[in-house]
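Input chain follows. Return structure tokens only.
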Amino acid sequence: MKENIDDILKKLDVVLSYAKTSIPIDDKYESSKTEEINSALAQASLEFQPINVNRQNPYLASGYSDLHEILTKIRPILGKHNLHLTQIKKQIDGRTILITRIWHSSGQWIESRVFLNPSKNTIESYGSNLNAMKRFEIMDILGLTVSGDPFDDDGEADMADEKEIIEMGSKLKTLYDKKKESYETITAEQYEELMLELDEHSDLVSEMLDSLKVKTLREIPKSRFNPTIDRVRRIVNKRSGR
């Protein structure tokens, strides 16, 4: 009886050691053999129909293919080749991970994983992020493309923040019209506040001095303090990812 208890305790230790890690117990992304599922996927890929944009995002002014449109196009073809798609969620270290898996009737499988990261703690934000990631993961694991995909933009959207920083930097040059400003300069408190914002961003100083036509920051017109520091904060926040 004692030996049986020892064996149980050893197995429990193994389970607990897995539970303490941030990696799922099954840390493989595919079955030990994949030749049958790969063959089936290769045949299915020849039959996938074009996926078209069928919805519009009113805020981003861009189109996309919703989850229903994608699944409607692929499910009959997957089934024809003995393939099946599942998407489940698991909790890992307090975070939710979406697991997308393609199964074959042989028991072989492949999968992808991605953490869900909704921008707000609301059911609407969670549902929006979940469905968006479901679409992206299905298309990625099956190698699908959307005709006229707005995300296929040569990295344009990914460069949006960098472009905004550059544009905001160049706008500093238009802040100051010397003929319209008074001779009163910023106070000592305003100078210290500005220096605090510019800490580790000294490249902005020379641009500000040039654009405002002054030799030192202390000579900045008091009437231009608020718009100047506002621009600086926006640039700094963008660079810091805030």
